[in-house]
Design goal:
The complex is a heterodimer. Chain A is an alpha/beta fold. Chain A contains 9 helices and 10 strands. Chain A has a 6-stranded mixed beta sheet with strand order 6-7-8-3-9-10, with helices on both faces. The longest helix of chain A is centred in the C-terminal third of the chain and has 15 residues. Chain A is globular, with a radius of gyration of 20 Å. The N and C termini of chain A lie far apart (about 60 Å). Chain B is an all-alpha fold. Helices cover about 70% and strands about 0% of the residues of chain B. Chain B is built from 7 helices and no strands. The N and C termini of chain B lie far apart (about 60 Å). The chains are: A alpha/beta, B mainly alpha.
């Protein structure tokens, strides 16, 4: 169980994360949703200890330290690979540092995405870089895989296929926390949706519960965010009115 | 051989050739040592001239150690400054073009990030300081010996002893 307890993070006078508590159990696939600047990325970085924060993060009751950090992996759209290295060199590096490295999964995913194994990452396209970032996170052998907008810049076919592959390869005890804007695409992939707004969790529901209530992920997000359906028509009406006055 | 290369590559940021960096640092240290070794030669040359002047009865003031040693340590100072800049560059390198520092900060081996950033600059600085100290001590010893040699058998005029103390 990955537990974030009363996480607080501010940048100067701006509060990025405001006393957030979240527990994620083994095998869950959690979607972390929210508008730009809501605090999704910051929350993931706090969980990994990549940014200083208040509050505690624990893994099965133990604080996250060097002893258990290998149980967490991270794929970020900022890219955490080494641009000068080839995929093969990355494999050697990860194999040396992460004893649970999943060689078979790495090879299968490299094959699936058709990535060149002997070209430096810096020569890859943005889409290929994203794909490799995700491959590393999935192959590290971590129990908790944190992904922050992993497919920003990838085409829809790649994304859809990838989610299908991911569902097929994940083992029951593997947990994914996925931060994304692409609600419709991950609706059939995630088992739980956590909504974050202005650094606070404003909704946390299992997808199965939503289905039982006859709603979907988009409906849930719109309700939690207080989306106004007539916003566009009102704005257009106002603009058209202004035009008429002129 | 491959094993040695892998071990060696752990001394520099991921993606940078450690062997090449070590060669560059070695070359810079050698150049600094070469520059520093000019000082002893200068000391010997000056005292040879000085001895000749004494022999013909010209009693000039003997040049001081700092005057003769001059800029002998400038080379080492330049190398150490360069190594400090190298350390800063090594530290920032994982943030250039990507955020690979995120990976380094998640490694079970906590020292990896620090070793890769600072091993070569630190080792280079230690060697530079040691070499500078050796050059300084050797030059000082040479200066003392040469002064004794220059004054040997010379009868100084009255009142000039203090000048050569």
């Amino acid at each position: 169980m990955l537990e974030l307890n009363k996480i607080y993070k501010s940048y100067g006078f701006t509060t990025a994360i405001d006393c957030v508590s979240l527990s994620v159990g083994p095998g869950e696939i959690v979607g972390l949703f929210g508008e730009n600047g809501a605090g999704k990325t910051t929350l993931l970085k706090c969980a990994l200890g990549l940014t200083a924060h208040e509050g505690t993060v624990s893994l099965d009751g133990e604080p996250v330290t060097r002893r258990n950090i290998e149980r967490l992996s991270f794929a970020t759209c900022e890219h955490s690979f080494f641009p000068g290295l080839t995929p093969n060199a990355h494999r050697d590096f990860y194999r040396e540092h992460f004893p649970k490295w999943r060689e078979k999964r790495y090879a299968a995913l490299m094959d699936f995405f058709r990535l060149p194994p002997r070209k430096p990452l810096r020569s890859f396209s943005t889409g290929q870089k994203n794909q490799f970032e995700v491959i590393l996170a999935l192959s590290q052998g971590a129990d908790y895989i944190l992904m922050d907008e992993p497919f920003a810049g990838n085409d829809i076919f790649n994304r859809e296929d990838f989610y299908k592959v991911l569902l097929g390869i994940l083992e029951p005890e593997e947990t994914v926390i996925l931060s994304t804007h692409l609600l419709e695409e991950v609706e059939n992939f995630v088992s739980r949706a956590v909504l974050i707004k202005k650094g606070k969790i404003v909704g946390d529901e299992l997808i199965s519960d939503l289905e039982d209530r006859g709603t979907d992920l988009m409906g849930f997000v719109k309700t939690a965010y207080g989306y106004e359906p007539d916003r566009v028509s009102r704005a257009l009406g106002k603009l058209t009115g202004e035009e008429d006055e002129k | 051989m491959k094993r040695i290369k892998i071990r060696l590559d752990r001394l520099s940021p991921v993606g940078i050739n450690a062997a090449l960096e070590l060669k560059c640092v070695g070359a810079a240290l050698a150049a600094a040592l070469l520059w520093g070794s000019v000082a002893p030669l200068h000391i010997v040359g000056e005292f040879m001239d000085f001895k000749e002047l004494l022999n013909v009865g010209v009693f000039n003031k003997m040049p001081g150690f700092s005057t003769l040693f001059g800029s002998a340590l400038y080379g080492f100072a330049a190398v150490i400054t360069g190594l400090c800049a190298l350390a800063v560059w090594h530290w920032l390198y994982p943030r250039l073009g990507a955020r690979s520092d995120y990976t380094l900060r998640r490694l079970p081996r906590w020292s990896e990030r620090y070793v890769r950033a600072f091993a070569i600059p630190l080792a280079g600085t230690v060697i530079a300081v040691l070499l500078a100290a050796i050059v300084l001590l050797a030059s000082r010893a040479l200066y003392t010996y040469m002064r004794g040699w220059a004054l040997r058998g010379v009868t100084l005029p009255a009142g000039m002893e203090d000048m050569y103390a």
